[in-house]
Amino acid sequence: MSFDFTRRRVLRAALLACGAASAGLALPAQAQAQAWPDKPVRIVAAGPAGATADMVARLLADALGKEGGQPVIVDPRPGAGGALAVNELSQAPHDGYTLLVGVNSLVSEIPHIVKLKFDMAKEIAPVAELGRGGLVLVGNPNVPARDFAQLRSWIKSQPGTVSYASYSAGTLSHVLGLQLNKAAGLDMTHVGYKGSTPALTDVMGGHVPLMFDGIPSSLPLIRAGKVRAFAVSSAQRSPLLPDVPTFTELGYPQLQATGWMGLWVKPDVPAAQQARLRETVLKLMGQPALRAKLTELGFEPGQPRSQEELSRSLQADYRRMGEVLKSIDFKPE
């Protein structure tokens, strides 16, 4: 941001504040939004330090700090599938200076998996989609299959003996395997882990032959030849894995699913403040340098869907996940 722009913004905010104060009135919500940020911002990352949410939050924090001229602090909060991060946000003031970065599963999946004392969908509201990507079916390089057709034949030849890992029971990583079993007439056994790292370690070690994983965590291993990619769940081929077909291409459109990393706030943050934040963040995320850094992490750029569209998609994904998990009598922990 240029010095002139910053000076004009600060001057405008000061004049508005003085005018409101002289009239004995609080600063109007619209003026507060235009003045944002005029103090340090905190971004709670739903996950441990160094994990995907933390890395995306730091990219955003760096850009937001340069844009707004205020310090932006990233606060990683791991635990309970993101519920601890959401709880941290819920206790913050509703002034738009405490934000959260986390995946859509906070609302669409976690409530089905973990017994919570609060409704995640009522505690956080999506502001903007920062990045997106489907899941990828990966396997140990020693699996005797070079493509999905060969993989399907190999699994069918030994029903009930081939297992697949997920990064957590009840998540999309688990559900996609259930859907593939049904759609392709397979009989794979699910093995749930607590995170991608231990699951991928066992896949590379040959303890579990297959896994459905997010592209950001698997991409470096795919490129290094430590795991092999067979198919992705996104609607189109991922530009990060252009040679890997989609499940839809392979004849399994029911496995089409995309996850996204989002920016969230408390629902009671004033609408003008949310709009100002959304406008700023979408502008920053559209910068070529930031988009390139996001791609390096394994994400495709986010779509500029409205907050209403994001909320509707979360509700639809929540219902869909619930129906699948109910069909296997899944019980939350």
Written description of the protein model:
This protein is of the alpha/beta class and 333 residues long. It has two domains: 199 residues, D-Maltodextrin-Binding Protein, domain 2, CATH 3.40.190; 125 residues, D-Maltodextrin-Binding Protein, domain 2, CATH 3.40.190.10. It contains 14 helices and ten strands. Strands 1, 2, 3, 4, 5, 6, 7, 8, 9 and 10 form a ten-stranded mixed sheet that branches. Helix 9 links the parallel strand 5 and strand 6. The longest helix has 21 residues.
Query: What is the H/E order?
Result: HHEHEHEHHHEHEHEHEHEEHHEH
* Classification by helices and strands: alpha/beta
Low-confidence stretches are 1-26
CATH architecture of the largest domain: 3-Layer(aba) Sandwich
What's the gyration radius in Å?
A: 22 Å
- How would you classify the quaternary structure? single chain
User: What is the CATH class name of the largest domain?
Assistant: Alpha Beta
How far apart lie the N and C ends?
Answer: 47 Å
The proportion of residues forming helix, as a percent range, comes to 40-55%
Strand content: 15-25%
| Coarse morphology | globular
Count of distinct strands: 10
